[in-house]
Design brief:
CATH class of the largest domain: Alpha Beta
Strand content: 15-25%
Shape: globular
Radius of gyration: 21 Å
Number of domains: 2
CATH topology of the largest domain: Nucleotidyltransferase, domain 5
Bound molecules: adenosine-5'-diphosphate
Distance between the termini: 20 Å
Length: 402
């Protein structure tokens, strides 16, 4: 018998959703609520008759959830909300507490609340999403799917920082990583491609936020993101790794408070701050193609950081079988992929298929290396929502067997 499961990804001012039929994993509908809390918000949702877009004020996530549940009925996507058996919520920060997805209860919500300082933009939005669904669908199973869970297999020497140990003991300051759901999805896809054969994998999740993970036999051994999503490689608006003294000098020289510098490093740096053009790779790419020097240097800076992590993880893994590019930039930016691979191809004996690289964009699968290549390079479109739904199904099944 087929049932429906809803995957929810709440951001600070947005709510993305995908409704799946299970066990077929068919997507019934998907859509997005935007500009929540702003004067004029809106949503779009896929229906049988095409995409519907509406503009309306969305003062908070609860209103968005109300509108979503009504829209599912109004557009004949479901006959009754009772068809939905579980709701999976992406949760960015689960700290040291969660190694796997769990039933989202009020106890779990209390932990997610405590972790807000480590994910100030994301965790509050996840909580309001959870509370809103609990009110509207009080009898439906909620599941929390943590971005950090997949990285819990790292060894202490990979997740601890060389600061006085008491900061770890007292405040849990350590590396947690992010995008775990995406990294795990890619690791499972590669396991399928390899027919279960163990392998060493470097996953480059390059979106607006970005992280690189070293995977050994399906498990994460190292990841580039740190305590918060600010660490690792350069991103759309975030610095990634820096000498920590940069923080001190920017604060001293510019008379900025710690909060102001933190904000500058999170929201006004990376592609945006360095290029002075945009946080979006498409805009920087246009400038690059027109010969803009800063755009050229931005791409050089970005690809160098990714290449350096690939080199580090190649050594960390004791050799690499495959590198995978995924997420917005990984799936759509052949120029950057080529710049990255050009820097590692001699050391890793990669025979890169440039034509295949050029053709692989727009959310499609691609193998970017020839048969002679020692290391395979893939593009695999990520599907975090599908992973969320798979975890919901697993937890729903376990609960029913209790
Ligand atoms: P996030 O989920 O972190 O917001 P995404 O994975 O959606 O990020 O990636 C968003 C980024 O992907 C955009 O900022 C843009 O730089 C890049 N991107 C998306 N489509 C394209 C494209 N067609 N060409 C180049 N870059 C693209």
């Amino acid at each position: 018998m087929s049932e429906l499961v809803l995957a929810i990804n709440s951001g600070s001012s947005s709510l993305k959703f995908k409704l799946f039929e299970v066990p077929s994993e068919k997507v019934i509908t998907s859509g997005l609520f935007e500009r929540i809390t702003q004067k004029e918000g809106g949503f779009r949702i896929k229906t049988e008759a095409g995409e519907v877009r509406r503009t309306l004020a969305l003062p908070n996530h609860e209103v968005a959830v109300n509108v979503l549940t009504k829209a599912l009925i109004e557009f004949n996507i479901v006959k009754s909300l009772d068809e939905i058996k579980a709701i999976g919520h992406r949760v960015v920060q689960g700290g040291k507490h969660y190694f796997d997805s769990v039933e989202f209860t009020d106890e779990v919500a209390a932990v997610v609340r405590k972790l807000i300082p480590f994910a100030p933009l994301h965790n509050p939005a996840h909580l309001t999403g959870y509370e809103a669904f609990k009110k509207i669908l009080p009898n439906v199973l909620n599941v929390a799917v943590f971005d950090t869970a997949y990285h819990q297999t790292m060894a202490p020497e990979d997740y601890l920082y060389p600061i006085p140990y008491e900061y770890y003991e007292k405040y849990d300051i350590r590396r947690y990583g992010a995008h775990g759901t995406s990294h795990k999805f890619i690791a499972e896809e590669i396991t399928k491609i390899n027919k279960g054969k163990p392998c060493n994998l470097i996953v480059c999740h390059l979106g607006n936020g970005a992280s690189i993970t070293a995977v050994k036999d399906g498990k994460c051994v190292a990841t580039s993101m740190g305590l918060t999503p600010l660490g690792g490689i350069m991103m759309g608006t975030r610095t990634g790794d820096l000498d920590p003294s940069v923080f001190y000098f920017v604060s001293q020289l510019d008379g900025k408070s710690a909060t102001e510098v933190y904000d500058l490093f999170n929201k006004k740096s990376g592609m945006l701050g360095f290029s002075g053009i945009s946080s979006d790779v498409r805009d920087v790419e246009n400038a690059f193609l027109q010969g803009n020097e800063r755009a050229d240097l931005t791409f050089k800076l970005y690809s160098r950081r990714v290449a350096d992590y690939i080199g580090q993880y190649h050594v960390r893994l004791g050799g690499t079988d495959a590198i995978v590019f995924t997420a917005g930039i990984g799936e759509n930016a052949p120029i950057l992929r080529k710049q990255i691979i050009d820097q590692v191809k001699d050391a890793l004996q990669i025979d890169f298929d440039e034509e295949q690289n050029r053709l692989t964009r727009g959310g499609i699968y691609g193998l970017l290396t020839t048969k002679q290549s020692k290391v395979k390079v893939y593009v695999i479109p990520t599907d975090e929502e599908l992973m969320i739904v798979r975890d919901c199904v697993r937890i729903l099944k376990a609960k029913r067997q209790q």
